[in-house]
Amino acid sequence: MSSVFTEITQLSSKDCFHIVERHKTEFTYPLHRHREFELNFIEHGAGVRRIVGDSVEEIGDFELVLVGSEGLEHVWEQGNCKSADIREITIQFSKDIFNENLLSKNQFVSIKKMLDKAEHGLAFPLSAIMKVYSALDTLAVEKEKFVQFLKFLYILYELSMADGVKVLASSSFANTSRNK
Length: 180
Description:
alpha+beta; six-stranded antiparallel beta sheet; 11 strands
């Protein structure tokens, strides 16, 4: 197996999150891991091969995955995707933006549970993706930073309430990879 690249993200200590939206014809970024949480949205990606820990799957036209463990390696590879316009939105954030006191409040219980489960990687069903699609669609171009953060919170909350969320990496993989 190839080596795993440790990414140093562009997330600044002065920002709540770092967001990048790009259109591309292929996936070329290597297998990697990083300290930050990553919410990765892909549109027009049918046939792309997703690897999160020991989970390997071919994705459909829409994909939304949350990765949240320092040791959880992940990558999206071209696979059988033939799309000429793959859209990807990547949001990286530190759990530090939500202190434990805030996460213990009733309004944040579901988000805390989701963030805890994300150490294994979470894939959201199409119904959840469509529920947050409008907010995701405009997040990167939102000029007002506070409004952008509110949309981000809305996305996290809605995803935390979703049914049918799939845990990706096995417990044994996530537990052992965290210590690398």
